[in-house]
Design a protein that fits this description.
It contains 3 helices and no strands. Pfam families: MrpF_PhaF.
């Protein structure tokens, strides 16, 4: 086995491990979103889920070499940030638009 084949093998296994851990992290966040005692816990869990989804798409993009996954991850991150800001404002003031 050459050094280049070894590097590709390590990269492939690392990406697979990252995907498994990200899915496990999304499962834990989904559990907290469903079971969270307060609304703040649920918002934080949803925030964690969108970050994990964006990272999972980035790992898929690295694995396949397609740029479409990177664009989708950017879109999820943008919409997730706006949604988190709106939910935080709603929880603080009771309204989103003043």
């Amino acid at each position: 086995m050459t050094l280049e084949e070894l590097a590709w093998s390590v990269l492939s296994w690392s990406l697979l491990g990252a995907q498994i851990l990200l899915v496990a992290s999304m499962g834990c966040a989904a559990f907290r979103a469903l079971r969270g005692p307060r609304a703040q816990d649920r918002v934080l869990a949803l925030d964690t889920m969108y970050v994990n989804a964006a990272m999972l798409l980035l790992v898929f993009g690295i694995r396949t070499g397609s740029t479409h996954y990177f664009e989708a991850a950017l879109l999820i991150a943008l919409l997730g940030f706006v949604a988190t800001a709106a939910l935080a404002k709603f929880l603080m003031r009771g309204e989103v638009i003043e």
